[in-house]
Design goal:
The chain is α/β, with parallel strands linked by helices. The protein contains eleven helices and four strands.
């Protein structure tokens, strides 16, 4: 499937006169897979690391992936069909964010969750600055569970992209694709994290569910729409209830912006 996605990205870029692809790399499996797919198009691919008080281990994984991508462009043994030029851009946004954070705290707007989301939005702005400076597009790294299951993304942050190559793939499918592409094993094994918190909390800490449990609940939710009498275990009922609670509070991210329709 990865070859089909690579072709889809390349065709979209060609159709729209796009010369470069810009991907934010976090040290996680999703961004590693997407950046590799982009590199395989043969188009100029800019992989961007944007640390903001970043967890050292996570940042090191992102740097290792960028180095691995760069090596692939010169070494065909890594399996790239048409490896394109890779440029690694590292923009440390720690000081920029600190100024923003200080001003908002002084004004009394000090929500911890809002600041976490602001990190994501600052990164989105950075990616678009780079993309628009190089006739490029921002390529999203969200998967199906995050984008259309529980809405685990920042509105106008990592949710602000031009195309989304893996948004129809579950996390399990992304892990499988990562193995097919030869992604560094440490990245495949790393606990998924959005990297938006000083304390280094991962996705499961925030969601209260593993991606495997989320996928299972997502499937159950779909099946129950077609068969309301489907028998499920007490454990599955508990997972489904938790999944629906998370999904419910994030539905506003997944739909169109509400618009007031003036009377005719």
């Amino acid at each position: 499937m990865h070859k089909q996605i690579t072709k889809w990205i390349k065709d979209y870029a060609k159709k729209n006169g796009i010369e470069s692809l810009v991907v934010g790399v976090s040290g996680g499996i999703d961004s590693a897979v997407v950046s590799t797919l982009c590199a395989n198009t043969g188009l100029m691919t800019r992989v961007v690391t944007m640390p903001i008080r970043q967890n050292k281990k996570t940042h090191e994984l992102s740097l290792r992936h960028c180095e691995w991508l760069f090596e692939r462009t010169f070494n065909r043994k890594f399996g790239a069909t048409t490896p394109g030029p890779i440029i690694h851009v590292n923009i440390d946004l720690t000081k920029t964010f600190a100024v923003f954070e200080k001003q908002l705290k002084l004004a009394g707007h000090d929500s911890e969750l809002a600041f976490a989301n602001s990190r994501s939005r600052l990164r989105m702005m950075t990616l678009y600055q780079i993309a628009q400076s190089n006739n490029g597009i921002v390529v999203g790294t969200g998967n199906k569970v995050e984008d259309f299951g529980v809405g685990f993304f920042t509105k106008y942050g990592d949710g602000g992209v031009d195309i989304s190559p893996i948004a129809d793939l579950t996390k399990t499918e992304v892990w499988e694709m990562g193995r097919e592409l030869g992604i560094i094993q440490d990245i495949i094994d790393a606990p998924p994290t959005d990297g938006l918190w000083d304390d280094g909390r991962n996705d499961e800490d925030q969601l209260g569910m593993s991606y495997l449990d989320l996928e299972n609940a997502m499937r159950l939710d779909e099946w129950l729409k077609n068969d309301t009498n489907l028998a499920i275990s007490p454990k599955e009922k508990k997972q489904l209830k938790k999944y629906r609670e998370i999904r419910s509070r994030n539905l506003h991210k997944m739909g169109q912006i509400p618009i007031f329709k003036k009377p005719i």
